[in-house]
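Reviewers of the previous submission asked for a worked example of the structure-prediction workflow described in the proposal, so we include one complete record here. The input consisted solely of the amino acid sequence. No template or homolog information was supplied to the procedure at any stage.
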Amino acid sequence: MHKKVEKFFVLYLTRAEPKDYEVYDFVLKNYYRLRFSSAVATDVKEVGRNPKRIQREVRKQVQNTGIGTKSQQALKLQQEQLKTERKIVSREQREAEKQRQFELKQQRRKEKHRGR
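From that input alone, the workflow returned the following structure tokens.
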């Protein structure tokens, strides 16, 4: 994975490696006298990334975005909602039928024992 980065370089000779606060102070004081180079596009390569972690991240991104256009995704969502509604209705019908069969069976048992 490469990232496109634009960098600006300033060449300024100093003695040893300056401290961060020295660089900051220098830039604040001499910013308008510095000559910047033109923008240079560079590729920054990410090193040391675990390939399994990269694969997991890619898989997660693909699952989140989904496939197809927004209209296809909307249709898929509507289809899933109808499916869950259908499941709920069919479950209620199945339970109602079970309850009806149970009551019918109980009624038949009572009729058998009535004559005794």
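Residues 70-116 form one domain. We consider this example representative of the routine output the project will generate in years two and three.
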